[in-house]
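Folds abound. A case:
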Amino acid sequence: MANVSVYNMEGREVGTIELNDAIFGVEINEHLVHLAVVQQLANNRQGTQKAKTRSEVSGGGRKPWRQKGTGHARQGSTRSPQWTGGGVVFAPTPRDYSFKLNKKEKRAALKSVLTDKVQQEALIVLDELKFGEIKTKDFAKVMTNLKVENGLVVIAENDENVVKSARNVENVDTTLVNTINVFDVAKAKTLVITKDALAKIEEVYA
């Protein structure tokens, strides 16, 4: 099992902790990580783009001119695609881009990115993260103490003081154990996990 240091909010090392190899020491599957990231981005797409086809554009009921004898090419409607103001050929319509990934594949992908963070020495375990009030300055100071510039902070419970204090800190996001996902972990340069959150992750994913 891998051992990592545990830090306090002042950035001082206060001990070490053993990580569960079933979560933080697995064989990294890059293909599943890629699939999980693509799935999350696809599921976030709204798919609301829309353009009108010739049948949906208003007007154009009358034939512009007679079929023969004008010298012009024959035309049936002023709303055909070649006309200004006409419909769009093969116009985009609202669609659902989402697709499913098996639960086992999602878990394997998450374990892969967590293992990668350990191997890259980009995982910080925090003994606790608590604030008496909502204050961005206090949260930013903790991140400075831990030397985190671009990171994801994982907490066990929805602590309003922590979440709202972090809201305006640039390049730092917070998430709960039950909402942690592959994309956010992979995107973050440093992963900060509180001891409580770490215990919950090992309980859920082991």
About this structure: The radius of gyration is 27 Å.
